[in-house]
Write a structure and sequence with these properties.
By secondary structure, this protein is of the alpha/beta class. The chain is built from 11 helices and 10 strands. The strands form 2 sheets. Strands 1-2-3-5-7-10 form a 6-stranded mixed beta sheet, with helices on both faces. Strands 4-6-8-9 form a 4-stranded mixed beta sheet. The protein starts with a strand and ends in a 9-residue tail after the last helix.
């Protein structure tokens, strides 16, 4: 199964590939499990600065779960609960990933594929990309845990529109709804996604990790503690801060150490 979720390294960037192009990169239960494992493994690698996620080929990011597997893996409540537990672990892995996550979206991005994209920090797609969650046709719901990322991304009203209508729509509408950050020509998706990851990777990695944590904390309505506020000053004691401001004054390119 490891060959269905590939990891390609070009330090300090890793690319995770959903490698099932004959099925448009549709996900099986085992793929969901392996994806969570991979994201956790990558999150623990200090030298990494950014992770790009993509589908194999240029026809699809992913259409979501493989419906052909439902008869054996999701045919009743108990099976669905077990399957959902695997997906929940993967969602948690994305939520806990300290590195920035960039979704490179070519072609179809619907259902569970859209869920994965929504869990990323930045989404870049091609002009012919298609989006939606047409699961109403299956008598299937998106679980509360999975809905959360969609609502946080586009808000309650748009999330309800996507789920209740079940339409599949184009890239321009996805941009208008806030589902994606950027739409480029189909033959420029890889180039733009890689350029985005490179810009991220050129920055101080500790800063990116802090910003991810700070923004995630904003979802918690509890007031910030004095310790949390004070953490915003920790960067001044980092080696990367010394490297950064000195290289700026010297007009040289900084080589950050991540410490």
């Amino acid at each position: 199964m490891s060959d269905l979720i590939l990891v390609q390294r070009d330090d300090p960037i890793a690319t995770v590939v959903f490698n099932r192009p004959d099925k448009l990169n549709a996900f099986t239960r085992a793929m969901w499990q392996r994806l969570g494992e991979v994201v956790r493994e990558l999150s623990g690698q200090h030298e990494l600065h950014c992770v790009v996620l993509r589908g194999a080929g240029d026809r699809a990011f992913s259409p979501g779960n493989d419906i052909g597997e439902f008869a054996t893996e999701r045919s009743n409540r108990e099976q669905a609960r077990a399957y959902g537990a695997v997906m929940a672990e993967t969602v948690a892995a994305f939520d806990g990933c300290r590195h920035p996550l960039v979704a490179m979206i070519q072609g179809i991005c619907v259902g569970g594929g859209l869920e994965i994209a929504a869990l990323c920090d930045i989404r870049i797609c091609g002009e012919s990309s298609r989006f939606g969650v047409p699961i109403k046709r299956l008598g299937l719901v998106m679980s509360p845990l999975e809905v959360r990322a969609l609502v946080e991304l586009v808000g309650k009203a748009v999330a309800l529109e996507i789920l209740l209508e079940g339409r599949v729509f184009g890239a321009s509408e996805a941009l208008h709804k806030g589902l994606v950050n950027r739409v480029v020509a189909d033959d420029k998706v890889q180039e733009e996604a890689w350029a985005t990851a490179t810009r991220i990777a050129e920055g101080a990695p500790l800063v990116a990790r802090w910003h991810k944590r700070f923004i995630a904390r904003m979802h918690d309505p509890a007031p910030l503690s004095a310790e949390e506020i004070d953490e915003g000053y920790d960067c001044y004691d980092s080696e990367d801060y010394q490297i950064g401001y000195r290289s700026f004054l010297a007009k040289t390119r900084p080589e950050f150490k991540g410490r």
